[in-house]
């Protein structure tokens, strides 16, 4: 077994082929150093890509090192090659690595790179038969190759739209309309329902097991209940991000903190721990109570408090620096407002910039 192994790449973005390369190196070496080379010309930073790989290899014998590298790519130039190698060598030295024993690559330059480090070259699936995927393919068709990305990259790249609002203001209607609108484009788009409602059903069913005539008004809420709801809400959202490039969530952990405040008062903080793990948000859609009739489905009790609750959302979303849009008008008008901004975000999500000299990886089609 080799002591120190080297893997380099742009990982733009990290995909299943990259994971296979690193896993192979980790199985054949005492420790693997992965240099994630990113430039100012690329949309995703080296730090972002490194974070996703760290999640993927957490606890393994792998060190992920983000490297800023704006040097041109020119495999025919000895001078450019020397500049590239020195960039790698000093990135390793900064992490206390003075000797590399093996270089693992799937690229044609592998022999030359290994020679530069006086190491052996271990080719890993150069024909890409195990995973017929490349970063170029992912960038050119992100949606079509979504499941090829490592899970952390999917969670990081997914466009997240969170629909929130007071009781009976159309949040569920808008969430369902949006998912129906985008399901043809993203067949795997997942439902992210309001978990608190299902949790309420479970609590009431348990209570009725001992008190058959119990109603929702008889439930006694605790801070622990809201902590469970908030954490489960985030889990549902994360699973949806792994399934498709677009997440439409009917509420989230942040909203849960406001509902906890609503039911238990300002001194209860059971759901606030989930705030430290709140995923990145793209936009909150806040459904307005004005012009929406209150529908009492037997589980609601706050018609008179809808204006106050709407203001709580406005205040909290503003104070915490989130992008939010108040959606008003008919269901059709609300849907039009939402899709306009979501379409723009999806277009931005699918835009990957690169330096003029960056090579495209074109894989041959298997016979």
Automatic annotation (TrEMBL):
<dbReference type="InterPro" id="IPR038727">
    <property type="entry name" value="NadR/Ttd14_AAA_dom"/>
</dbReference>
<dbReference type="InterPro" id="IPR014729">
    <property type="entry name" value="Rossmann-like_a/b/a_fold"/>
</dbReference>
<dbReference type="Pfam" id="PF13521">
    <property type="entry name" value="AAA_28"/>
</dbReference>
<dbReference type="InterPro" id="IPR004821">
    <property type="entry name" value="Cyt_trans-like"/>
</dbReference>
<dbReference type="GO" id="GO:0003824">
    <property type="term" value="F:catalytic activity"/>
</dbReference>
<feature type="domain" description="NadR/Ttd14 AAA">
    <location>
        <begin position="160"/>
        <end position="334"/>
    </location>
</feature>
<protein>
    <submittedName>
        <fullName>Transcriptional regulator</fullName>
    </submittedName>
</protein>
<dbReference type="InterPro" id="IPR052735">
    <property type="entry name" value="NAD_biosynth-regulator"/>
</dbReference>
<dbReference type="InterPro" id="IPR027417">
    <property type="entry name" value="P-loop_NTPase"/>
</dbReference>
């Amino acid at each position: 077994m080799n002591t120190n192994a080297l893997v380099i790449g742009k990982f733009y973005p990290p995909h299943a082929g990259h994971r296979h390369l690193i896993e192979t190196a980790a199985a054949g070496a005492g420790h693997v150093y992965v240099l994630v080379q990113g430039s100012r010309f690329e949309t995703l930073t080296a730090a972002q890509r490194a974070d996703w790989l760290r999640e993927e290899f957490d606890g393994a014998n792998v060190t992920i090192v983000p490297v800023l590298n704006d040097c041109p790519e020119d495999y025919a130039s000895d001078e450019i090659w020397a500049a590239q190698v020195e960039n790698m060598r000093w990135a390793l030295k900064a992490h206390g690595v003075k000797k590399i024993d093996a270089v693992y690559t799937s690229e044609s330059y592998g022999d030359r790179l290994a020679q530069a480090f006086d190491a052996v070259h271990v080719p890993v699936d150069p024909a890409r038969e195990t995973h017929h995927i490349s970063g170029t393919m992912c960038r050119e068709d992100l949606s079509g190759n979504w499941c090829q990305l490592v899970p952390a990259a999917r969670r990081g790249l997914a466009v997240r739209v969170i629909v929130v609002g007071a009781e009976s203001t159309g949040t569920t209607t808008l969430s369902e309309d949006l998912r129906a609108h985008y399901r043809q484009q993203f067949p795997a788009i997942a439902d992210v329902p309001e978990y608190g409602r299902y949790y309420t059903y479970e609590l009431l069913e348990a209570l009725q097991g001992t008190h058959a005539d119990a109603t929702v008004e008889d439930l006694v809420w605790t801070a622990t209940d809201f902590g469970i709801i908030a954490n489960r809400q985030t889990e549902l959202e994360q699973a949806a991000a792994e399934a498709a490039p677009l997440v439409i969530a009917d509420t989230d952990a942040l909203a849960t903190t406001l509902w906890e405040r609503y039911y238990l008062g300002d001194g209860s903080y059971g759901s606030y721990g989930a705030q430290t793990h709140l995923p990145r948000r793209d936009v909150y859609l806040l459904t307005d109570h004005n012009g929406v009739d209150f529908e009492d489905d037997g589980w609601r009790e706050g018609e008179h408090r809808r204006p106050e609750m709407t203001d709580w959302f406005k205040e909290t979303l503003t104070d915490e620096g989130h992008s939010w849009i108040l959606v008003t008008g008919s269901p059709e008008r609300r849907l039009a407002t939402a899709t306009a901004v979501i379409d723009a975000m999806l277009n931005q999500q699918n835009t990957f910039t690169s330096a003029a000299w960056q090579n495209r990886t074109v894989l041959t089609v298997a016979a």
